[in-house]
Design a protein that fits this description.
four-stranded antiparallel β-sheet, 5 domains, nine-stranded mixed β-sheet, 20 strands, 10% strand, alpha/beta, 32 helices
Length: 861
């Protein structure tokens, strides 16, 4: 990094004056590096704002101005990535002297910015030129910049034309302290700049900003905790420390949905910090350094990203992190580390991870960890291209059409770590140029030796695959509801086992207007690479936005419960001897047979005879929030009477037209009976109603009894012939714990299902008459407590009564007493299973219920 003679003279004079008489060799040497060379000196510069959301906003404004001016697409994205690197380099000593870029922009370009694009274009050319390849006549303002290499500035692009406003934005950006950025966070925010227009950016920026704490939740149990523990075991032995450092330098990581590289960046940073601790420990044992032996480097990290711009950002983010860690090591050891020109790079592939061969990109004999945060896209929101990619990946998996897009990464990872290796075909196929040529290989005695060589190579690769550990952040949908049976049924059959998991938590960010999604983290690997009993790590949360509490688990099943690896099938009948459950009746009417309060009054004003054909209509929202709604229930209505009610007949005609125009043959057939609901499942007597969707905030799903005259909609499930005993079990904490763990979700709300939740639920086995009577009595007490609240205030709703912050004490007490009675009925089953009969958490209850489920279905324990 060349310094002018005037800079050398000035620095030397200041150093000699400030440190005259100091005798501490270490302090003097470190200060020499810190102050003499600009990259490591403590300079007093004008106050700068730390990088934050404001900087991203300004970068976004510059992006928008350039794009509106016609500079867009690939050229604009590459320009922004180069600008990001240059701003960082200007504040961290890569560019010499410090603030060289800022000086170029502020003092060597025209005030109106007319030549600024050309100046930057020339700078980017210089940054790609080795010193000995530069023209001797290169102006000093450019010649002082270093050779960067790394192919970042290799592609020649036409520079943008700047306006005065654009120039002002760039000057503002140069004035911020880019040395303080977190590349992991800023990369994701910068991606948001590209994806959002200026109007929505400030409101939505937070949705793309992932906090580092969430990333640490994954990399800690995946590898960092174990490496830290190993370091503690070897830190008193110098030879073991160096062997451990070699191990760190061999570790290889793949993020197959890397985005802007945040998982790779944080993983690299933590690995480098551990290496610093290793070197410090060796130094305390008497080790002295010549050149500091930093061994961990960015080329240990691989990423795949489908979008070009974030792939470029990920590449640069790894270089930025590398430089930050070099500075951190320099400050610890007093020795400058500057990896410029760039020699090594992270391996970032711009491509479709679901189409690429991961083993071709990262050889299994080299890879240790697969990690990341694949995209969350539910089946209803997938594009045709995404559906096609997922279908291709999930070939041979029955029912894969219900899976979230993220499941594709689980399947790819599973195939990677469990693939059976053809000892001949794949070895020859993957023989790469540069390896020893086949004709030069010397074999032993005859063809048996050649056969053994290929078998040995295949065995090495297969063992390497089995040793790879994986962890993904995912929507919690893949551990709940119908997806579990499809995805995890296949994964378990492939030999995949869960090593650690975080149960549902809010994947938060730290930006204004922040967004959150309910996620899980699942760490998994091949069965042969499993962990000893009681050593699996399960992180539970009292609430999704709470702090994790770790428990040691004997086994973690696909519902993230410390229980046997059981997958609940979709059942048509309950496993226990209880009344069947069905959906309510579906109108399939386009709203023509349904009435609000106002519509009912208007219809009766013009058609009084219709009153006897109107029934209360109860869906989930109507039931929970006491919203009055009605329907035309024309079962057994004589044709002549229907014809006489012209307003009603008009509605029926509208139903007929709607159904006849449907693209579904079954719906068109229903046009023959337009006066009736499309599907009728209304019981002839009282029934128990369960809303199909309910808020996750509630400890108890509100359920209740209704009479036969109230028509239950298909947004509810109903249990005809249910008794207070059945109500008591279904409204208990035991059953609601089961719901919380195994039910699917609609967004974050519980989605109750017949086939998964109800039909697989293990009821108490052979409760005594007294236990049955007690449960029924306490269940009635819950109903009475509700009725008292409704009588006290007609505006009271079940939503209010079951709001965890508003639940009346009398209702809380009634549920508590009911829970005691229900738990007592389960105690005999617990004793028979040899487990405790008291349960403190949802997790403990569900672990017991899975054990009981296995007994009832004759599955191995």
């Amino acid at each position: 990094m060349p310094l002018t003679w005037s800079e050398i003279r000035t620095n030397a004079q200041r150093f000699a004056h400030d440190w005259a008489g100091v005798s501490s060799e270490r302090a003097e040497a470190q200060t020499f590096w810190n102050e003499f060379f600009a990259g490591y000196r403590r300079q007093k510069v004008r106050e700068q704002d730390p990088i934050n959301v404001e900087a991203v906003q300004k970068m976004g404004d510059l992006h928008d101005l350039l794009k509106r001016d016609g500079y867009d697409g690939h050229a604009l994205e590459v320009f922004l990535v180069r600008l990001l690197f240059s701003l960082f380099a200007d504040d961290t000593g890569i560019f010499q002297p410090k603030d060289a870029l800022q000086d170029l922009v502020e003092n060597h370009a025209q005030e109106d910015g007319a030549d600024l694009g050309d100046q930057l274009g020339r700078l980017f050319v210089v940054l790609n030129q080795p010193y000995d390849k530069r023209q001797k006549s290169t102006p000093e303002i450019f010649a002082a910049f270093p050779y960067v290499n790394g192919r970042l500035f290799e592609e020649r692009l036409d520079p943008p034309v700047f306006s005065k406003e654009m120039c002002g934005l760039l000057i503002d950006l140069c004035g911020m302290n880019w040395g303080m950025i977190s590349p992991a966070i800023f990369g994701a925010m910068l991606q948001a700049v590209i994806e959002l227009d200026a109007r929505d950016r400030r409101r939505q920026l937070g949705a793309h900003y992932t906090g580092e704490a969430n990333i640490l939740k994954l990399i800690g149990p995946l590898f960092m905790d174990e490496l830290r523990a190993e370091f503690e075991q070897v830190k008193a032995n110098k030879n073991l420390l160096f062997e451990f450092q070699k191990k760190l330098a061999r570790l290889t990581f793949l993020d197959p949905a890397c985005g802007c590289g945040n998982f790779l960046v944080i993983s690299y940073r933590e690995l480098r910090r551990l290496e610093i601790d290793v070197l410090q420990a060796a130094e305390k044992l008497g080790q002295r350094w010549g050149a500091l032996p930093i061994a961990v480097d960015v080329d240990q990290f691989y990423g795949i990203e489908i979008e070009e711009f974030p792939a470029q950002v990920a590449q640069v983010a790894m270089w930025l992190t590398d430089h930050q860690m070099n500075i951190e090591a320099s400050e610890v050891f007093g020795e400058p580390i500057l990896r410029i020109p760039l020699v090594k790079s992270a391996h970032i592939r711009h491509g479709n991870a679901l189409q690429l061969d991961w083993a071709e990109f990262v050889p299994p004999t080299r890879l240790n960890y697969i990690l990341g945060n694949p995209p969350f896209v539910g089946k209803q929101h997938q594009t045709p291209e995404q559906k096609a990619d997922l279908a291709q990946v999930c070939t041979g998996i029955h029912g894969a059409g219900v899976l979230d897009f993220v499941a594709g990464w689980y399947v790819k990872a599973a195939r990677y770590v469990t693939a059976e290796i053809n000892p001949f075909g794949q070895i020859v196929e993957r023989a790469a140029p540069g390896r020893k040529k086949f004709k030069d290989v010397r074999f032993g005695k005859g063809e048996h030796a050649m056969h053994d060589m290929f078998l040995d190579a295949a065995e090495v690769e297969q063992q390497a695959r089995r040793a790879v550990r994986c962890a993904f952040v995912s929507t919690n949908s893949i551990t709940q509801g119908e997806q579990v049976g499809v995805l995890w049924g296949w994964l378990l059959n492939q030999g995949i086992r869960i090593r650690f998991a975080h149960r549902t938590f809010k994947w938060m960010n730290e930006a204004p207007g922040r967004a959150a999604v309910h996620c899980v983290i699942v760490g998994f690997g091949a069965q042969s690479n499993n962990v000893p009993s009681r050593q699996r790590r399960l992180f539970e949360y009292e609430t999704p936005d709470g702090e994790p509490h770790e428990v040691k688990a004997a086994s973690i099943n696909p519902y993230l419960v410390d229980a046997a690896e059981t997958v609940l099938p979709s059942r048509r009948q309950p496993i226990s001897p209880v009344p069947p459950i069905v959906f309510g009746s579906m109108p399939n009417d386009g709203g023509n047979l349904l009435l609000s309060d106002a519509e009912k009054r208007e219809l009766l004003r013009t058609e009084p005879a219709a009153e006897k054909w109107i029934r209360p209509f109860m869906g989930a929202d109507e039931f929970i929030n006491r919203v009055p709604r009605w329907c035309l229930w024309l079962v057994d209505c004589p044709a002549a009477e229907l014809k006489a009610m012209s307003a009603v007949a008009a509605r029926v005609t509208a139903v007929k037209q709607l159904r006849a125009a449907s693209s579904r043959p079954t719906t068109r057939e229903l046009a023959a009976t337009p006066s009736l609901f499309g599907e009728i499942r209304q019981p002839g007597g009282p029934y128990l109603l369960i809303p199909s969707v309910s808020s996750e905030r509630r400890r108890f799903i509100p359920i209740g009894f209704l009479g036969a005259d109230t028509i239950a909609s298909n947004a509810t499930l109903i249990v005809p012939d249910a008794t207070p005993f059945h109500f008591g079990i279904l409204t208990s904490t035991m059953h609601n714990s089961w719901v919380r763990y195994v039910a699917g979700r609609l967004e974050s709300r519980y989605r109750y299902s017949a086939q998964i939740v109800y039909n697989n639920f293990p009821w108490p086995t052979a409760p005594t008459e007294k236990q049955t009577a007690d449960i029924a009595a306490y269940a009635q007490a819950v109903l009475d407590a509700r009725a008292a609240e409704f009588a006290r205030d007609a505006a009271t709703t079940l939503a209010t009564l079951y709001d965890p912050d508003l639940m009346p004490p009398t209702l809380v007490k009634a549920h508590r007493e009911l829970d005691r009675a229900v738990d007592a009925a389960y105690a005999a089953s617990a004793h028979a299973l040899g487990v405790k009969a008291k349960w403190a958490t949802d997790g403990e209850r569900v672990a017991f219920l899975f054990a009981l489920y296995q007994r009832l279905t004759n599955l191995p324990q």
